[in-house]
Amino acid sequence: MNSIKKIASSSPDTKPFFSVLPAQLLMLWGSSQEPWGVKDIDSKYIYANRAYYHLLKIDPRKFCIVGHLDDELPSPISEFASHFQQHDRQTIEHQDRLCSIEIHPYEADQLMRPYYFDKYPLYEEQTRLCIGTIFHARKVENLLLKKQLLSRAKPGYFLFYPPENVFTEKELEVIFCVLQNMSSKLIALHLGLSHRTVENKLQVIYRKAGAHSLSQFSEYCRHKGYDHYMPQKLLSPTSQLLDMSL
């Protein structure tokens, strides 16, 4: 990581970064109707297309995003800067695409809208070191999912990757259901498990979390970030688990 930071901070401006961005990509992003952007290793913007400016309702003639952090933007999303930067760091650490759902006031009318945000590691071609992230935003088109997400009536986000590698995939599904205030019998029904299996998994989950009650476990989840985790399996159009009253 130190070598990556050295490369990213060795130049006072962003010009060197454009040498690692293929001209074809810049042309594609520039003409795209979907938001695209690039950040350096410190989460400072080094590129954003017009669609991203439009998404945030920022006039590029009055404010240039390049060189700024999320908390410096004249946009409501600035309040979630720490989350965006954590997403950047985890993308770099995982060396893979990571996706989240962002629910914020977007576009010209600043209405609450859910967007998928995909982030990818950006590599320097010669050294193969990761020097930042590329992001791409796309609308959530599933009408049922949009309705369920917008029922929150407040800004927020959900991640499709767990904050830690502590729990198994099935345990994570149970955790999501628990945080939706579902009983163990209802969890069993929705996940296609027996009631006994769910009870056993809950015991294992509580033991791993060091929790002895639901309130302790809920606090653990808030502290670790599991309250923002959403299993991808539960995103099917027929899923009825997305009670966004968290």
Write up what this structure looks like.
By secondary structure, the chain is an alpha+beta fold. It has 2 domains: 2-159, PAS domain (Beta-Lactamase), CATH 3.30.450; 169-235, Winged helix-like DNA-binding domain superfamily/Winged helix DNA-binding domain (Arc Repressor Mutant, subunit A, Orthogonal Bundle), CATH 1.10.10.10. 39% of the residues lie in helices and 18% in strands. It has 10 helices and 6 strands, in the order H-H-H-E-E-H-H-E-E-E-H-E-H-H-H-H. Strands 2-1-5-4-3-6 form a 6-stranded antiparallel sheet. Helix 8 (184-191) packs across helix 9. Residues 1-16 and 237-246 have low confidence and may be disordered.
Summing up helix and strand content along with how strands pair, one would put the structural category as alpha+beta
How is the main sheet built? Answer: 6 strands, antiparallel
What's the total helix number?
10
CATH architecture of the largest domain: 2-Layer Sandwich
Distance between the termini: 36 Å
Helix percent reads 25-40%
Please write the string of helix (H) and strand (E) elements: HHHEEHHEEEHEHHHH
Poorly predicted regions are 1-16, 237-246
Rounded average pLDDT = 84
Report strand %: 15-25%
Radius of gyration, rounded?
20 Å
- What's the number of domains? 2
Strand order of the largest sheet: 2-1-5-4-3-6
Output the CATH homologous superfamily of the largest domain. PAS domain
CATH domain topology of the largest domain: Beta-Lactamase
Q: Under the CATH scheme, which class of the largest domain?
A: Alpha Beta
Structural shape = elongated
Number of strands: 6
